[in-house]
Amino acid sequence: MSGRNNARKQPKVKEKVIIDENNPMLRAFRAYSMELDAKHDRYERIVKLSRDITIEAKRIIFLLHSIDSRKDNKEKVLEEAQQRLEKVIKVNFKAVAQEMQNLDPYQYRGAYAPGLQEFIEAYSFMEYMRYTDDKSSSLDNEASMSDWQQLQGKMQYIEAETNDEISAEMKENKFSFHVEPSEYILGISDLSGELMRRCINSLGSGETDTCLLICKVLQHLYKGYIGLSIPRCRELSRKIHTMRQSVLKAEDVCYNVKVRGGEAAKWGLESEKPNVDIDEGFF
Fold it and tell me: Keywords for this entry (predicted)?
């Protein structure tokens, strides 16, 4: 009996499977594998480029917040910010556009969207600081913020490439970075947070007229956003809620300015958290 059991326990020898390298299905799946690997590698490269854009945009925003009327440094800071933003367009966004040449940009939207939104926030904040007169109490201004089509026009690139080594004829390779309109809207919505910070900083430096002007700008911006409806964009509702909080904080600052006058800077904000329980019929 023991001999029979030992015979049964002996492992079976597996037969070697012969793979036909010329099998059409096998060749097709290998081609799909190479295509997916290339797509994933390209996606990761775009994520890294987008991260560099985000970091530089945040630094430019921090630079713009250093503008102070007491230091008389507005023109110098704006010039530096303009040069750095143009460099981001010419270098960083060009690299992203090169990666997506002749490809569907929506396939890589999740990779470049964070950097694009942060850049739009920095660019629009720079334009606001450049074209807005801090001493004005009016919103009427000939200068306007660049829309997504104007930014799209700045992100057009041309490269020269040789057609033939013998003839050495040069051919122009034209490509562009795709500025998605919905990403532009999301980027502009983030501007409200920077305007709110500018409003609070202006209160500390005694620029009460700037506080009142920024509050009006935020109210108009919020009024426009609550009427928007972008299908399949859950992020917009979250950003509108954040914008509402920024508006309430700016209004709290203006309340202190109106009530306390010149002593508002000493008192600061009356409350750290605005009353977000007010029902406006939107949420």
Answer: Coiled coil, Cytoplasm, Magnesium, Metal-binding, Nucleus
